[in-house]
Amino acid sequence: MGVYVRRLELPLPYDKAYERSLYSLLLISKARVRNEDRAEGMIFATVRINSKTFGDRISIVVTETGTESVYIDVSSRPVLRSPLLDYGANLDNVNKICEFLNA
Predict the structure, then answer these.
(1) What is the largest CA-CA distance in the chain?
(2) I need a labelling partner for 75 at 20 to 30 A (CA). Which of 13, 26, 31, 61 fits?
(3) Beta bridge partners of 8
(4) How many domains does the chain have?
């Protein structure tokens, strides 16, 4: 119900993948990074209220695979726990981030 999660495996070094993940949030209108921890590979952001949503929470987690690639887990969910509709805002958030990371 408005919660979207996607995992990517990318052939990038950890630091470059983390930077690209952080930069990808610039594609989301009204997104603001709330917390980040490069050592843990975690980025948390919120999206302010707009015409599609009452606000969203986005998390990106970058994990080394042990080879020369990384896993990137992207999720987006509404701030409100029981929204009736999110008008596709969270799916859009995940798609924009994943498209940018895959490019």
Answers:
(1) 42
(2) 13
(3) 72
(4) 1
| Full residue range of the structural domain in which residue 64 is found | 4-102
Give me 48's structure tokens.
Answer: 């302010």
Cβ-contact 93, 4 below 8 angstroms: yes
Give residue-wise pLDDT tens across range 4-24.
999 999 999 999 999 999 999
> Quick one: tokens of 50?
């707009």
Tokens read off for 11: 């052939």
E-assigned strand segments in the chain? 4-10, 31-37, 42-47, 56-64, 70-78
Output the domain CATH number for residue 29: 3.30.530.20
Please write the tens of the pLDDT for every residue from 25-49. Answer: 999 988 999 999 999 999 999 998 8
